[in-house]
Amino acid sequence: MRQALTDNLIYLMLLSATCLAVSLPAVSFAADGVPGLDPKIISQASGEQATADKSGVVKVSWARTDVPVRVDGIPLPPAAGLGSWAAFMATPKGAMVMGDTVVFQDEVDAAMDAAFVHGLSVTALHNHFFYDEPHVYFMHIGGEGDAAALAAGVKAVWGAIRAVRAQHPTPASGFPGDAPKPGHLDDAALAKIVGEIPAVAGGVVKFTLGHDSSMGGMPVGASMGLTTWAAFTGDDRLASMDGDFSMNAADVQPVLRALRRAGIHIVALHTHMIGETPVVYFTHFWGKGPAADLARGFKAALDAQAGIH
Questions:
Q1: Number of neighbouring beta carbons within 10 Å of residue 80
Q2: For 187-306, CATH number?
Q3: Which of 21, 51, 238, 265 has the fewest beta carbons under 10 Å from its own?
Q4: Which of 22, 155, 29 is nearest to 90 (CA)?
Q5: CB-based contacts of 77, cutoff 8 Å, min separation 6
């Protein structure tokens, strides 16, 4: 876990110049009577060629030609679904950005950390393909504020990805560090850190907390799958932790940020249901390291979520 934090720090240091560049003013204009944003400002701040459509939306894109991808044994051209993009639209508060970024597994941490450093939100992380080699994921981002600052954030995210590939041209096949081996886990010590009583079975120490929503006017909760949980395996010295957070919309960014500050990897962000009120989001995570450190990271995310309510 320390190695992962060190690597991410290197990626963010490589992007420090971008942080200093967020001094461009947000400039809006009216073209043919349609309010919009100046593509030149977006181009300069993002480092990419921006174009505007008739509605005033300004867009930048980046085709992932740097890593060959095969899907179901077929070479996939970047134009067939391996393109990163960000779209900017003028708002009364300045601008908003929405986008989708192609990431390989070893790029997710760096891309997500860069987004958070630059005030962007991560709104989804999932796959688009089966039987892809190497595995490809898609990280959706969003944000509101000054147009140039948002564009600089996109530049930082894409720059973080490029920095990973510059150091290691071939995507990694696993996280750094040794693999935990079965051993003794002090469930009482972990319970003291988390503040909950775990279930212990088959060498796994698992914490589970319920979450409430409703569907079709009926209450739904933990027994229907709305849970936050973390499962520990290995031993006290070196353990793995996998799990899932169930969250309302306002919880998502604080929970993601807390997990990343603890060096815990986000491996998915999505929904599990359709039509529930309020909408529930789920993020799946993975970590390796001393069991107590992992438990403290999980507890920090629980506390971040509790602070919202």
A1: 11
A2: 3.30.70
A3: 51
A4: 29
A5: none
Main-chain phi, psi angles of 57, to 5 degrees: -75, 135
110 in Cβ contact with 163 (< 8 Å):
yes
The pTM is what?
A: 0.88
Cα-flanking dihedrals φ and ψ of residue 46, to 5°?
-90, -20
Task: Report the run of H or E that residue 301 belongs to, with start and end.
Answer: helix 291-306
Q: Chain centroid to CA 179: how far?
A: 24
Here the tokens at position 208 are: 């589970």
Phi, psi (degrees; rounded to nearest 5) at 56: 95, 0
| Nearest Cα to Cα of residue 95 among 64, 137, 50, 133 | 50
Helices and strands per DSSP (H, E), number in the chain: 8, 20
Residue with tokens 């080699």: 133
Q: How far apart are CA 154 and CA 50, in angstroms?
A: 12
Residue 121: φ, ψ to 5°:
-100, 145
9 or 78: whose pLDDT is higher?
78
Tokens of 298: 């999980």
Do 87 and 57 form a contact (C-beta atoms < 8 A)? Answer: yes
Structure token pair of residue 45: 């701040």
Residue 259: name the closest of 298, 206, 308 by CA: 298
Q: Measuring CA to CA, how many Å separate 138 from each of 42, 89, 122?
A: 22, 21, 11
Domain ranges for the chain: 2-167, 187-306
Dist CA 189 CA 237 (whole Å): 13
The 8-class DSSP code of residue 224 comes to: G
Strand 204-210 and strand 199-201: the pairing is: antiparallel
First to last CA, the chain: 30
**Per-residue pLDDT reduced to its tens digit, 133-173:** 999 999 999 999 999 999 999 999 999 999 999 999 999 99
Q: Identify the three-state secondary structure at position 105.
A: helix
Whole-Å CA distances, 254 to 85, 109, 139, 245, 309? 25, 16, 17, 12, 12
The structure tokens listed for 305 are: 């979520």
